[in-house]
Specification:
- 6 copies of one chain form a homohexamer.
- By secondary structure, the first copy, chain A, is mostly helical.
- Chain A has one domain.
- Chain A contains 3 helices and no strands.
- Chain A is globular.
- Chain A starts with 13 loop residues before the first helix and ends in a 6-residue tail after the last helix.
- At the A-B interface, α1, α2 and α3 of A face α1 and α3 of B.
Chain lengths: 76, 76, 76, 76, 76, 76
Amino acid sequence: MSNGGLQTLRTSTPEEGYALAVNLAQKAIELTQPSEDIRKLLRPVYSTDANSLIAVSQVVALHFQTVAFANNYWNN
Amino acid sequence: MSNGGLQTLRTSTPEEGYALAVNLAQKAIELTQPSEDIRKLLRPVYSTDANSLIAVSQVVALHFQTVAFANNYWNN
Amino acid sequence: MSNGGLQTLRTSTPEEGYALAVNLAQKAIELTQPSEDIRKLLRPVYSTDANSLIAVSQVVALHFQTVAFANNYWNN
Amino acid sequence: MSNGGLQTLRTSTPEEGYALAVNLAQKAIELTQPSEDIRKLLRPVYSTDANSLIAVSQVVALHFQTVAFANNYWNN
Amino acid sequence: MSNGGLQTLRTSTPEEGYALAVNLAQKAIELTQPSEDIRKLLRPVYSTDANSLIAVSQVVALHFQTVAFANNYWNN
Amino acid sequence: MSNGGLQTLRTSTPEEGYALAVNLAQKAIELTQPSEDIRKLLRPVYSTDANSLIAVSQVVALHFQTVAFANNYWNN
């Protein structure tokens, strides 16, 4: 993401698309909790909790749906 | 959003689209809990709770899906 | 919604579309718990709980997706 | 739903479409818990719990998306 | 599902489509917890818990969306 | 998935598509919690918890929606 923020949802592969989906999932958390220190404190909580990890994966799945559609599922 | 409320879902970039998605996610909370004081009291609760932050991100992801589709994924 | 119930998903603006989405989210709750008294007892519970408010916003987001699609995203 | 089960997703109005969505949401619960007695025991639990009611509304919202799409959003 | 696994999402009626959606929802659970004994131990837990039943219904709703789209909503 | 990561969402059957959806669901968990040891510690927790298993199935359902759409629902 350039310093002008998110300019495109296009990626060359599903792998890059998945990485963008992970970024999109994190973006809302950074906007909702701007303090990097607090986010760092929370990391050991959610990254060692099975249900939190599953919930993170669900948000990524929604964004991956969006990114995949934006890239015509990389079918070209 | 003008004082006539939400008039369009069109934005010029995905970055602006994401900001609109965050607004759309907050809008239902403001309609459901109109008291700004109560919302302010809740802020330290959800903004320091990993699962609440992930749940917020999920709502933004759903609205971002809608806004992205409305803007043809900014592919023009 | 006329007394014949929900006759259309068309609205003239996204703002009206969002209000319809809120109605659609409430409709299932009224059908599942027809007692207005009980619903009134529950209001202070969910409207002062951050996770409940986020969950309400998620249901509105799903209905807003549906209403937006029904109105071609108000792009006409 | 006729005794041959669900034969169509078509309804004449969004109101009927919403009622079908409620039926579709209940159908999985009846298939997962066939005992009507147990389901009746559970009713006072979820119908007086704000988060359960919101979760029910979310399932109805997903099915309403499906039924609305099946009926071209009753735009004809 | 033949022994070659899932070969098609096509069904002749929405009723069959709903049954396929239930199978698709169960499939991930069987893949994640291959032990039938453990799954049997869990059955009385989720099948008598309102929130678990609602969560099951939500997964079925997502798969029913997919199966309905695959069958053009049985509109032919 | 080749060592270049995810290159395509195309699969020849829904069965393979479902397996890809399971991989996509796991991928976010591996990215969020890179330690295989920690993930192994969590396995007995979520794989014997009904609600965790249902939540896993929900993430797979979202990815299966994406993969099915990418493959035109294997209708060709």
